[in-house]
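Morning!

As promised:
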Amino acid sequence: MADVTNLRSPAEAGLSKLFEAARQGFASEEAIAREEAFRFFEATGLPSRRVEAFKYTDLRAAITEAAPPAEAPSLDAAKAAVARATAFSGIEAARLTFANGHLVRELSDLDRLPEGVRVVPLNEALSRGDPALKQLAPVAQARENPVYQLNTAFLADGALIAVAPGAKPERPLHLRFVGTGDRPFSTATRVLVELGEAAEFALLESHEGPDGLTAQPNDALDVVVGPRAAFRHTRLNKEGDATIALSTLSLKVEAEAQVETVNLVTGAVLSRHQIYVHVAGEDTNVVVNGAAMLRNGQLADSTLLADHAAVGGVGREQFKWIIDGDATGVFQGKIIVRQVAQKTDGKMKSDCLLLTDEGQMMNKPELEIFADDVACGHGATCGAPDPDLLFYLMARGLPRPVAESLLVQAFVGEAVEAVTHAGAREALIGEIEAWLKTRA
Amino acid sequence: MLEIKNLVVQIEDNRILNGLNLTVNDGEVAAIMGPNGSGKSTLSYVIAGKEDYEVLDGEILLDGQNVLEMAADERAAAGIFLAFQYPLEIPGVGTMTFLKACLNAQRKARGEAELSTPDFIRAVNGAADKLEINKEMLKRALNVGFSGGEKKRMEILQMALLQPKFCVLDETDSGLDIDALRIVSEGVNALRDQGRSFLVITHYQRLLNHIVPDTVHVMSKGQIVKTGGKDLALELEASGYAEYRTSEAA
């Protein structure tokens, strides 16, 4: 039989070349299966709209060129980028700074970490084959995702973060990702967070870059939340207007653990945030919220898979979308309740406000339930701001743009209210207000 | 104060107001009564500037200025206030945030300085005390989870705070128990003065025992068909609207 050759896009061919070149630099004793990951990716290629999970976010069409992996920028360039970055800057936190996907030790608080928190730079862990690397990729379904596998194949830097059992550091840890430069580049970072039993930990994550920067970050955060631990995660995507930002959050949630993750997207021309939740232990409580405020041809995709594989899990997923101009929002949310996961209580909602006739919202909520004693629901709405509410506000003297802003803020605010850390919550509200102020 | 001349209004090809004429003088409390469907609520919305209605003819003059050319917020800044029959719930918008935004937007539109936060809080607390509004309510989202009576009281609180010139009360008595009716009426009466006029829309005479009008107008089929003193309301209470319905049928 003749060999069948798949037609590869220039970007896919470019990625193969880049992988061949990068292979020389990989440490041979590495504990991560880069080859396997890249073979997986090569078999699927960049997912196009023909792949169900990427139907509305066609990466094959969006990524026309494979950007080379970023070199670490100079310290001066990194410092300048950090000086521009504003997200979460008012919060008293320990910081790990990544410039173009590389950890900048000089701009990180490795020697003044919150109590009970240990950090090993991923670079170090990779070169010495740290056994903790075995904990990477804690959720099986994520390993079937081409974006995540591409991250594994090209993994360049990141951190292994361990929070000691029972530790409850007051200060959060802030993962500050900044982009800089004038040439296209890609990044592949991975941060693993392991919370020991009954630990409580707040993680802030911000992604910022200047407009015009043609970056292709592909970042992954793997989290194992130990029994009775509480993980609070606040994320902000404020990338520049030419950046294509891919990210994957994998959460393994053990018995009686609590998780709160809230993601606000205002940046990037195209972004896709993939969230995998594996409810592995009984009686967990997981809140996954997201908000996106989009304009000028932006596309933001939130794709969620919550897999309940244990009894009594409570899940609350709430996504809010503000679509202005000709932007597009994509929400794909799937809750799986396995037969063993009786008494699961899951609610998923995605609501969109379309501020113009040109905007688009794609909502695809799904439930797959194999247990018979559960309470699960999903809902999706989409519409213009309520004219009666607008009239009520205007009749009290608020000009239309102010009235509309107030309604938008209230609408998005519902997703952000879940943030427990007051400083992080206020920071997100500040971003929402700033976005509204720049609205023409 | 307010002069409505030959107002003709339709919504989706349904003629609701048919050449309505009405004058409310400075300091006057005018009541409008009338059967269901006579156009009373439409009149209140058209005065306040709701966009769903098409004004085919006529004028609404506030101190000589035609307000029909103004957006709802501009009318509010000019001194028009509508107390809604069904105040809306606005989740996520804190009551205090809302009150402050409205007050300052109106002041800004009039070229006045914004109220300082202490002055604002003092003003809100003072008005809330008079209307027996629990301070906890002020901490919640606007009207969310409020009872019907609480919502109406919140409307009067807004009126007291914004100090409008011309107040339209659209069936403010609906959904109120006796105590709430008294509190709301006292709130309105406290605002009566020579520089402020009221248009009180109601089905029932009961409200007018508390807010005693200077004039009573009967509205039917989109027009004012009879005008009298406060005794007219008592007559209507006794005789009902049958006479006016007959005239409609005629």
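Chain A has nine helices and 19 strands.

Hope this helps with the figure draft.
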